Amino acid sequence: MRSRYTAFVLGDVDYLQRTWHPDTRPEFLTINPEQRWLGLKVKGTTAGTEQDHEGEVEFVARYKIAGRGHRLHERSRFQRLADDWVYVDGIQLEKSGR
Protein backbone atom coordinates (compact mmCIF):
# COMPACT_ATOMS: atom_id res chain seq x y z
CA MET A 1 0.00 0.00 0.00
CA ARG A 2 2.72 2.46 0.95
CA SER A 3 4.68 1.76 -2.22
CA ARG A 4 1.60 2.43 -4.37
CA TYR A 5 0.96 5.70 -2.51
CA THR A 6 4.58 6.69 -3.19
CA ALA A 7 4.10 5.82 -6.87
CA PHE A 8 1.08 8.16 -7.00
CA VAL A 9 3.16 10.91 -5.36
CA LEU A 10 5.97 10.41 -7.89
CA GLY A 11 3.65 9.90 -10.87
CA ASP A 12 5.10 6.42 -11.53
CA VAL A 13 2.36 5.02 -13.76
CA ASP A 14 4.48 2.00 -14.77
CA TYR A 15 4.81 0.86 -11.15
CA LEU A 16 1.09 1.37 -10.52
CA GLN A 17 0.25 -0.75 -13.58
CA ARG A 18 2.70 -3.51 -12.52
CA THR A 19 1.20 -3.68 -9.03
CA TRP A 20 -2.43 -3.78 -10.22
CA HIS A 21 -4.17 -7.15 -10.63
CA PRO A 22 -4.37 -8.01 -14.36
CA ASP A 23 -8.12 -8.75 -14.10
CA THR A 24 -8.95 -5.25 -12.81
CA ARG A 25 -6.06 -3.14 -14.14
CA PRO A 26 -7.17 -0.32 -16.44
CA GLU A 27 -5.67 -0.34 -19.93
CA PHE A 28 -4.57 3.28 -19.52
CA LEU A 29 -3.84 5.20 -16.35
CA THR A 30 -3.27 8.92 -16.13
CA ILE A 31 -2.29 10.91 -13.10
CA ASN A 32 -3.49 14.48 -12.69
CA PRO A 33 -0.30 16.59 -12.65
CA GLU A 34 -2.08 19.21 -10.50
CA GLN A 35 -2.77 16.69 -7.75
CA ARG A 36 -0.44 17.18 -4.75
CA TRP A 37 -0.38 14.32 -2.27
CA LEU A 38 -0.09 15.40 1.37
CA GLY A 39 -0.04 12.22 3.41
CA LEU A 40 -1.11 8.65 3.97
CA LYS A 41 -2.53 7.11 7.14
CA VAL A 42 -3.08 3.35 7.26
CA LYS A 43 -6.05 2.82 9.58
CA GLY A 44 -6.03 -0.97 9.63
CA THR A 45 -5.29 -4.21 7.86
CA THR A 46 -7.01 -7.56 7.56
CA ALA A 47 -4.95 -10.65 6.69
CA GLY A 48 -2.13 -9.96 4.21
CA THR A 49 0.53 -11.96 6.03
CA GLU A 50 3.01 -14.32 4.38
CA GLN A 51 0.52 -17.17 4.94
CA ASP A 52 -2.38 -15.34 3.28
CA HIS A 53 -3.41 -15.15 -0.36
CA GLU A 54 -5.57 -12.03 0.12
CA GLY A 55 -5.60 -9.00 2.37
CA GLU A 56 -7.26 -5.65 2.90
CA VAL A 57 -5.94 -2.24 3.86
CA GLU A 58 -8.06 0.65 5.09
CA PHE A 59 -6.37 4.00 4.59
CA VAL A 60 -6.87 7.73 4.29
CA ALA A 61 -4.79 9.62 1.72
CA ARG A 62 -4.92 13.40 1.66
CA TYR A 63 -4.27 15.53 -1.42
CA LYS A 64 -4.93 18.94 -2.96
CA ILE A 65 -6.05 19.94 -6.42
CA ALA A 66 -6.09 23.64 -7.29
CA GLY A 67 -5.64 24.52 -3.63
CA ARG A 68 -8.66 22.51 -2.47
CA GLY A 69 -8.10 19.69 0.04
CA HIS A 70 -9.49 16.19 -0.49
CA ARG A 71 -9.40 12.89 1.36
CA LEU A 72 -9.52 9.43 -0.16
CA HIS A 73 -10.76 7.00 2.49
CA GLU A 74 -10.75 3.52 1.00
CA ARG A 75 -10.70 -0.15 1.90
CA SER A 76 -8.45 -1.77 -0.71
CA ARG A 77 -8.27 -5.45 -1.56
CA PHE A 78 -4.95 -7.04 -2.48
CA GLN A 79 -4.05 -10.52 -3.74
CA ARG A 80 -0.77 -12.33 -3.79
CA LEU A 81 0.32 -13.29 -7.32
CA ALA A 82 3.45 -15.42 -7.18
CA ASP A 83 5.48 -13.58 -4.52
CA ASP A 84 4.02 -10.11 -5.11
CA TRP A 85 1.01 -8.35 -3.62
CA VAL A 86 -1.16 -6.60 -6.23
CA TYR A 87 -4.07 -4.18 -5.89
CA VAL A 88 -7.42 -5.73 -6.89
CA ASP A 89 -9.98 -3.03 -6.13
CA GLY A 90 -11.26 -0.78 -3.40
CA ILE A 91 -14.39 0.56 -1.78
CA GLN A 92 -14.49 4.28 -1.08
CA LEU A 93 -15.67 4.81 2.49
CA GLU A 94 -16.43 8.54 2.43
CA LYS A 95 -16.70 11.41 -0.01
CA SER A 96 -13.51 13.07 -1.20
CA GLY A 97 -14.17 16.74 -0.30
CA ARG A 98 -13.31 18.14 3.11
Number of strands: 4
**Rg of Cα set:** 14 Å
- Listing every helix as H and every strand as E from the N terminus to the C terminus, the arrangement reads HHEEEE
What is the CATH C level class, in words?
A: Alpha Beta
Which oligomeric state applies? Answer: single chain
What level of helicity do the residues show?
10-25%
What's the CATH topology label?
Nuclear Transport Factor 2, Chain: A
**Contiguous runs where pLDDT drops below 50 for at least 5 residues:** none
**Strand content of the residues, in percent?**
over 45%
Write down the domain tally: 1
* Cα end-to-end separation: 23 Å
Number of helices: 2
Layout of SSEs?
Elements: H1 2-10, H2 13-18, E1 36-47, E2 54-65, E3 68-81, E4 84-92
Antiparallel strand pairs: 1-2, 2-3, 3-4
Structure characterization notes:
This protein is 15% helix and 48% strand. It has a single domain, classed as Nuclear Transport Factor 2, Chain: A, CATH 3.10.450. Strand 2 (54-65) and strand 3 form a beta hairpin. The chain has 98 residues and is of the alpha+beta class. The radius of gyration is 14 Å and the shape is globular. Strands 1-2-3-4 form a four-stranded antiparallel β-sheet, covered by helices on one side. It has helices at residues 2-10, 13-18, and strands at residues 36-47, 54-65, 68-81, 84-92. The two termini are 23 Å apart. The model has no long low-confidence stretch (mean pLDDT 95).
